[in-house]
Amino acid sequence: MATIIAPSILSADFAHLADEVKKVVDAGAEYIHIDVMDGSFVPEITIGAGVVRSLRKVTDAVLDVHLMVEHPETQIESFAAAGADIITFHVEATRHAHRVIQKIHELGCKAGVALNPGTSLSAIEELVEESDMILIMTVNPGYGGQKFIESQLGKIHMLYHMIDEMETTCDIEVDGGINAETSVDVREAGANVLVAGSAVYGAADVAKAIKDIRGKEIVHHHHHHDDEEDEDEL
Ligand code: DX5
Ligand code: ZN
Fold first, then answer.
1. Between vectors from CA 163 to CA 210 and to CA 153, what angle results, nearest 5°?
2. Residues paired with residue 88 on neighbouring β-strands, in sequence order
3. Is 35 a catalytic residue?
4. DSSP label at residue 148
5. In this structure, how many other beta carbons lie within 10 angstroms of the beta carbon of residue 54?
6. Residue 154 alpha carbon to ligand 2 centre in Å
7. 228: Cβ contacts below 8 Å, ≥ 6 apart
8. Start-end of H helices in the chain
9. Looking at the predicted structure, is the pLDDT value of residue 147 above 90?
10. What does the pLDDT read at residue 225?
């Protein structure tokens, strides 16, 4: 699995969003990560479905919507209609995560499930099979520019093995404090979708920043077949 770079427009200039999106797509980014905050699940209020609808008209890039909202089940319909490709919600924000995944799929989008740093993998074990992506937060959600939380590396690695053992496919996204240095650790641990806000939009040379975060391809060693040396390039 090749690494996918998802710049977060949270760190972009909101007065020039179309240009800010074009800038990172021209620089090689595959996804545009859109941080939706409701002032309740997290303190700030950021972007609504109307902004997604406008961005849909100006880019063909994958719109990766990260819902940091309470009761995501009440919001997914408008974000799907607005043109989101991937809708990720927090497992902490709903009682019926499995149903939310089903609803996202019914609306024709890919479904992601996010975990706060304090939430254990057991919360999503029964959801991995249904999910297209699991988002491991490497900061507490709410703000750009925070420091990467090292303890999440073990969790990423455990998730990577969980997915491998289930013999299913599921992207592992990481979000928070990702830069050229932390990128190496999260990719080694098994993450393949890397969100970066300040490290991309704060850089003088955005193309170089994206290239540095993407880094060199990492070869993972699979373990699920004990009887054979199973070495896959991801
Ligand atoms: C944090 C958001 C992130 C944020 C990342 O709550 O979910 O997507 O924009 O910003 P950086 O890359 O600056 O940590
Ligand atoms: Zn995010």
1. 50
2. 66, 112
3. yes
4. P
5. 13
6. 20
7. none
8. 17-26, 49-58, 76-82, 97-106, 152-165, 180-189, 198-201, 206-214
9. yes
10. 55
Active-site residue, from 35, 38, 132, 185? 35
**Is residue 209 pLDDT above 70, yes or no?**
yes
Whether 175 sits among the annotated catalytic residues: the reply is yes
**What is the distance between the alpha carbons of residues 137 and 72, in angstroms, rounded to a whole number?**
17
Residues with CB under 6 A from ligand 1: 8, 10-11, 33, 35, 66, 139, 141-146, 175-178, 195-199
Neighbours of 222 (CB within 10 A): 15
Instruction: Indicate the length of the chain as a whole number.
Output: 234
Helix (H) or strand (E) holding 193: strand 193-196
Report the SS3 class of residue 116. Answer: coil
Q: Which atom of ligand 1 is nearest to the CA of 140?
A: 6
- Which ligand 1 atom sits nearest the alpha carbon of residue 137? 7
DSSP 73: G
Measured distance CA(146)–CA(142) in Å, rounded: 9
Q: Mean pLDDT throughout 167-191?
A: 98
Helices and strands of the chain, counted as H and E runs: 8, 10
- Scored b (16 or more CB within 10 A) or e, 115-135 reads bbeebebeebeebbebbbbbb
- Closest ligand to residue 196's CA: 1
Is the model's pTM score more than 0.90?
A: yes
Contacts of 56 (CB under 8 A, 6+ apart): 63, 82, 83
* Nearest alpha carbon to residue 135 among 164, 176, 167: 176
Beta strands 171-175 and 219-221, pairing class? unpaired
